[in-house]
Amino acid sequence: MLTQRRGEILRIIVSEYISGAVPVASETIARKYRLGVSPATIRNEMTRLEDEGYIIRPHTSAGAIPSDKGYRYYVESLVDEAELAVAEQFLIRHLFHQVEMKLEEWTELAAAILAGLVRNVAVVTLPKAAQPRLKHLELVALQDFLALLVVVLRETKLKRQLLFFDQAVSQWELDALAGKLNAALSGLTWPEILARVSEPSPIEEEAINALVRIMQEEEERRYEEHCLDGLRHILSQPEFSSSRKVLDIMGVLEGKNLSRVIPPHVLDSNGVHVIIGAENTEEVMRDCSVVATRYGIPGEVCGAIGVVGPTRMQYSRAISSVRYLASVMSGLVSEIYR
């Protein structure tokens, strides 16, 4: 732990650098803040902070910028997690009540609101069930030996799979089989389906195996489709003046594998997670920080909501905004699923 004075100087350096994006000199701290100590003492304390890895000096005679370690200490020990203003909370809830009760529209709106609040990139995933449950299935004959399995999961997801049979099957037979399976399996997870079925016919076995594979693949996916907003904010950040760097980051953000940005453990635990700089597993994200949390009904259906920006981000604002939007989204998801 840092001494109180050294911690206060670190807080000032982080705050000044977040605001101005220029290295912070000891003379600036002495002039703007009444710490009750001489400029020489401030310089000595900054030297100690540099020796301990909390700040970095880009040049010998230059001011200081926070290191990842400095940002981490700031986030965990110094940052003031102020709540969003009541007027902002009221406006956010009002905006959600203006859109239809559709998860897709809610996630898009949440991403747009969050990006506007923090002036960085916002990422919001659609909620995903911990264990998919069958709602309904249909079987459609395409040819004598070929049929289309249409699966609707309780999470309103629709999946399709071609089935190949060893014998000709009519639409009448497929309708009868679909009715039988819906009556026996609706509302079940794939382990429950396997436990329920016994001595199926060859045609039943083919359909059930395909259904189970679909549900297993859905369960293995950590994240649903996601909405992005605020990519324009990256372009205004001095850290991302390199077009190559921006393209690399956008490639990760817009990719299918969102776990490269938001680690899967975010969905498995409570609270807001802050990932700073080199703590990111992706090399191209090492100049970024991620502030993320889950929303929804723990153990049943959850999504992720987060902010991506430079390590020089307004952490207090990002944490409070992510936390509040997650609480709003959790309430909306509860309305649908319960």
Topology:
Layout: H1 4-20, H2 26-32, H3 39-51, E1 55-56, E2 65-66, H4 68-78, H5 86-97, H6 103-118, E3 121-125, E4 128-129, E5 134-143, E6 146-153, E7 158-164, H7 171-185, H8 190-196, H9 202-220, E8 226-229, H10 231-235, H11 243-253, E9 273-276, E10 288-297, E11 301-310, H12 315-337
Antiparallel strand pairs: 1-2, 3-8, 3-11, 4-11, 5-6, 6-7, 9-10, 10-11
In short:
With 338 residues, the protein is α+β, with helices and mostly antiparallel strands. The protein is 46% helix and 19% strand.
Low-confidence stretches: none
Corresponding CATH superfamily of the largest domain = GAF domain
Order of helices and strands: HHHEEHHHEEEEEHHHEHHEEEH
Question: What is the total number of structural domains?
Answer: 3
Report what the structure shows.
With 338 residues, the chain is of the alpha+beta class. It folds into three domains: 4-78, Winged helix-like DNA-binding domain superfamily/Winged helix DNA-binding domain (Arc Repressor Mutant, subunit A, Orthogonal Bundle), CATH 1.10.10.10; 86-127 and 224-337, GAF domain (Beta-Lactamase), CATH 3.30.450.40; 134-220, 2-Layer Sandwich (Enolase-like, domain 1), CATH 3.30.390. The chain has twelve helices and eleven strands. Strands 3, 4, 8, 9, 10 and 11 form a six-stranded antiparallel sheet that branches. Strands 5-6-7 form a three-stranded antiparallel sheet, covered by helices on one side. Strands 1-2 form a two-stranded antiparallel ribbon. Strand 6 and strand 7 form a beta hairpin.
